[in-house]
What we know:
2 copies of one chain form a homodimer.
Chain A: H1 2-10, E1 16-17, E2 21-23, E3 29-37, H2 39-42, E4 52-53, H3 64-82, E5 90-97, H4 103-109, E6 116-119, H5 125-138, E7 144-151, H6 153-160, E8 176-177, E9 180-187, E10 193-199, H7 214-233, E11 242-245, H8 249-262, E12 271-273, H9 274-277, H10 281-284, E13 290-291, H11 293-310, E14 315-319, E15 321-323, H12 327-331, E16 338-340, E17 342-347
Parallel strand pairs in A: 3-4, 5-6, 5-7, 8-13, 11-12, 11-14
Antiparallel strand pairs in A: 1-2, 2-10, 3-9, 7-9, 10-17, 14-17, 15-16
Helix pairs in contact in A: 3-4, 7-8
Amino acid sequence: MEQMGQMKQKEQPEQIRGKQSIVFADPPYIISAASVAGSKEAVGPLGKFFDMTSQDDQFGEKTWEEAESTMQKEACVLALGKARIKAEEVRYLFGGDLLRQGVATSMGVEALQIPMFGLFGACSTSGEALALCAMSAAAGYGKYMLGVTSSHFGSAEKEFRFPLGYANQRPLSAQWTVTGSGAFVVGMRRSRVKIRGITVGKIVDYGLKDSQNMGACMAPAATDTIVRNFEDMGVGPEDYDRIVTGDLGYIGQSILFDLVKGKGYDIRKKHMDCGMTIFDQETQDTHSGGSGCGCAATTLASFILPKIESGEWKRVLFVPTGALMSTVSYNEGASVPGIAHGIVLEHSAPDPGEADEIC
Amino acid sequence: MEQMGQMKQKEQPEQIRGKQSIVFADPPYIISAASVAGSKEAVGPLGKFFDMTSQDDQFGEKTWEEAESTMQKEACVLALGKARIKAEEVRYLFGGDLLRQGVATSMGVEALQIPMFGLFGACSTSGEALALCAMSAAAGYGKYMLGVTSSHFGSAEKEFRFPLGYANQRPLSAQWTVTGSGAFVVGMRRSRVKIRGITVGKIVDYGLKDSQNMGACMAPAATDTIVRNFEDMGVGPEDYDRIVTGDLGYIGQSILFDLVKGKGYDIRKKHMDCGMTIFDQETQDTHSGGSGCGCAATTLASFILPKIESGEWKRVLFVPTGALMSTVSYNEGASVPGIAHGIVLEHSAPDPGEADEIC
């Protein structure tokens, strides 16, 4: 990221950029990543890329919540194994999920006994966790940080919608919560993917109240963070190989394109949405696409990071998006604001002759 | 904190200490703090110390959730005013609450339009927020950080227990959720309270399942963090003027004393619990004491920080405690693990002739 590097040297001595962003002077790396997913995800377009999938969506547990916790624990253990480190070498864990009081995370990571910060950012949590992992690693607060997040179709339907047995009809704007978990080890140890910078999102509320059209609720927040990233870092769509949103889905994407165009940028050729990537629209019928914390996290771990590692994509803006709501706020007539966090990921070429890490 | 300072110079060049702690080489300050509380808190022992109380526990809003959001917003605005800064000068906000999907925070801080990290740490959230504010400020990620948290008796009873109109009987081990919010501006600008270090907590689960006895569920986590703080930083009870837990209450306190004694330390003469301080046990009948994110946050802002500012207390270990559970995890028979984060607060004397900040 030469442009950002030059900006740092010439214009701003600090790492902080513009209103909401950080460009790390000495960037941390994603040392390893792991993805665990369910049976529907296993037969989707990314099925062969996940590290682990289960035909049993309960993952051997008695409840959906325990299943989600088990996915998180498995994703963490896999990521630790790939980084060849033990849980006790991780300084701090940053994790969260969609469930009330974040129980999937509390129960999931408990066995690892890593000092932890619990997060809630709805489906933007993978970005929030990566931002805090990167900030902590770059500041020297520990050698390794672990970020993890998850969602589960069964636990999410129970949390936000109707019992599965009720077999409710879903509107065409609805999205399908991904059953999956992604975990990421971040640190200063060199790998082929560096976290060059972050753009922390604000809450953006256009007043929409339809929780069955979350793409529309989140598109304004995605727009705000993407445009803020461009302006804070002095870059544009041309500087990225991909601009990846979390789970706007088909409806959210079309709104995103319009809103970003209104700000003077055209990202259509660079855009990819994890919710539109993880399921096959022709054969899997998820209506507007996939969603959930696990959607962006597993797509990043399984599909996006390998492309950055290989150098096929040199620089990616990863922008998971969250809809901030609960059944209580919805039933009380509150709107559904959105939030999105931007993570600038860059391919890092190995030094000649130097052994490098593969995520 | 000479002892910690010397350790840093001689033994460990890094800020990281032991297994879970950071001692800041250049410590950030709590520049300002503000507390907003409800009608029951207003007539309690700390009533006269709160910045704002309301006789109307709905704070002019239609729902308990909106009331809680309004408290958060007011607390933030008051803290910003005391620090004489505008919301747009705050780089990042770290906030959370007890409600499902953190809606009190999402709806509360939205108007401030500060880039935000949503947190969930149950009643330990004030410690989690202060830790992340301090880490971010000390790392130079922005001039000012804002930490905020809240709880509300009405919204918490609805979230976790029964409708208020049901007038359910509470067991003697139960605690009373504090209606209140505390906000803190953290930065490198000098004040009379510095955040000398932090000890990030782990999830500790002794297998207790009684959500109506949260003091017992959280005492093991408080023990773990306090003892870890002693060991990581090479200090003991004698190095603190007070060791303040968040909301263990009367039952939790007695368990804490026993557990800490089992680890070889006696903290009885130094201990204070916010849940035992905020309500009067004789006249206010809250059974085991106060609880909720707002309990530790408002007690810190209104009562503890002024004593550190004045120099009456030179060094305090502030350890808010959280019980990690939801109605779903409880109904499914899961245990209630705890987590606690430790914040080392120190009196900072003004330089001779230098104007200093008063929180």
